[in-house]
Amino acid sequence: TPIIGPDDVRMVAVDALLFDEANANVMPPDEYEQLVINIRDHGMVQPILIKAFSGDRFEVVDGEHRAKAAKEVGLTHILGVVWNGTDGMRKLFSLSMNKLRGDPDLGRVQAILGMLNADGWTVDEMLVSDSGG
Fold it and tell me: Could you give the C-alpha distances from 130 to 49, 82, 97, 100, 109, in angstroms and in order?
């Protein structure tokens, strides 16, 4: 299990974030607007989870809607926690976080699971337990 240390928490430029076009988490427009209002009124109070990509660029693992809302209200930098799992682990982790909040787009979930299977992941490896294992 990757451990996150104090050096893995940093301010990142919103413009340096890469968003996963296959993100299976869908947020209804009215909920997204509430998120924008909340971040505008209270700031970004929860860091996003990111994975180093290249140079100062990061892939968003969890928190895409928060990051986009932060940019929409004019924030240029937000708090990110760097997570160093593999690409397959990132996709699985993203799906498991979506299970905890939001409504997944089942077609996108199926496509991601298909990609993971094509990359050699077994069904047992893709099972996400409620204990985070």
Answer: 19, 22, 11, 10, 18
H or E segment to which residue 17 belongs: strand 17-18
Helices within 11-56 (DSSP H only): 29-42
Per-residue model confidence as pLDDT tens digits over 56-82: 899 998 899 999 999 999 999 999 998
The pTM of this model reads 0.66
> Strands of 48-54's sheet, edge to edge?
9-13, 77-82, 48-54, 57-62, 17-18
Token reading at 7: 């050096």
Is the separation of the CB atoms in 51 and 82 below 8 Å? Answer: yes
